[in-house]
Amino acid sequence: MAAQPKAKPVLHDYWRSSASYRVRIALNLKGIAFDRVSVDLVAGDQRHPRHLAVNPQGLVPALQIDGLVLTQSLAILDYLDETRPQPPLLPSAPAARAHVRALALAIACEIHPVSNLAVLARVEALAGAEARADWNQDNIASGLLSIEAMLDHPGFVGRFCQYDAPSMADCTLIPQLYNATRWGVGFSHLPRISAVARACAAHPAFAAAHPDHFDLRRRQGSLRERA
């Protein structure tokens, strides 16, 4: 009997979710073709029983791959790197690996959670729309200042976050820069971040993962449409 072909990975994501954007970049870097299920966070699809059956946290992204369902974007990136090591998302030297992880975690655990949809909605409920914007702009601006300082290291060669190839750090930084632009937070005064942004913009894996390609106006297969 012929071996059954492996099922194509399926990414449950929201087009503008920065955590989902990270995973799309990584999948593209690894050359992994995938299908998508759009989870409209604004419409509340994340609370739909069908999505909760995939990810009980009611969050995106969730990646179905290798007979597994993986959640949490950085855990997904680790899994992809461990199971499909080329091209690597982490450098081989322990110190460089630690620095790439520190950059990724500084964004994913410090900047992003304070700017997520639930937090912003709560800020607006307590203090109004203007406070929501001020909160988010201040959080992103101060966070990017810290990232710029962290990029001042011997492994920064003027292109990507570490050395001369994209890493987990770049997968995490670029979605945060997309959020910065959405909220009117400039970063042209940050030369290292700007250099990384230019290098990634010219890389096809990053370009193909950009939210503009997945705008809900052009979506297919959303949970509400399948209900």
UniProtKB/TrEMBL annotation:
<dbReference type="InterPro" id="IPR005955">
    <property type="entry name" value="GST_Zeta"/>
</dbReference>
<dbReference type="Pfam" id="PF13409">
    <property type="entry name" value="GST_N_2"/>
</dbReference>
<dbReference type="InterPro" id="IPR034333">
    <property type="entry name" value="GST_Zeta_N"/>
</dbReference>
<protein>
    <submittedName>
        <fullName>Maleylacetoacetate isomerase</fullName>
    </submittedName>
</protein>
<dbReference type="GO" id="GO:0006749">
    <property type="term" value="P:glutathione metabolic process"/>
</dbReference>
<comment type="similarity">
    <text>Belongs to the GST superfamily. Zeta family.</text>
</comment>
<dbReference type="GO" id="GO:0016034">
    <property type="term" value="F:maleylacetoacetate isomerase activity"/>
</dbReference>
<dbReference type="InterPro" id="IPR004045">
    <property type="entry name" value="Glutathione_S-Trfase_N"/>
</dbReference>
<dbReference type="GO" id="GO:0004364">
    <property type="term" value="F:glutathione transferase activity"/>
</dbReference>
<dbReference type="GO" id="GO:0006559">
    <property type="term" value="P:L-phenylalanine catabolic process"/>
</dbReference>
<dbReference type="InterPro" id="IPR036249">
    <property type="entry name" value="Thioredoxin-like_sf"/>
</dbReference>
<dbReference type="GO" id="GO:0005737">
    <property type="term" value="C:cytoplasm"/>
</dbReference>
<dbReference type="InterPro" id="IPR040079">
    <property type="entry name" value="Glutathione_S-Trfase"/>
</dbReference>
<feature type="domain" description="GST N-terminal">
    <location>
        <begin position="7"/>
        <end position="88"/>
    </location>
</feature>
<keyword id="KW-0413">Isomerase</keyword>
<dbReference type="InterPro" id="IPR036282">
    <property type="entry name" value="Glutathione-S-Trfase_C_sf"/>
</dbReference>
<dbReference type="InterPro" id="IPR010987">
    <property type="entry name" value="Glutathione-S-Trfase_C-like"/>
</dbReference>
<feature type="domain" description="GST C-terminal">
    <location>
        <begin position="93"/>
        <end position="223"/>
    </location>
</feature>
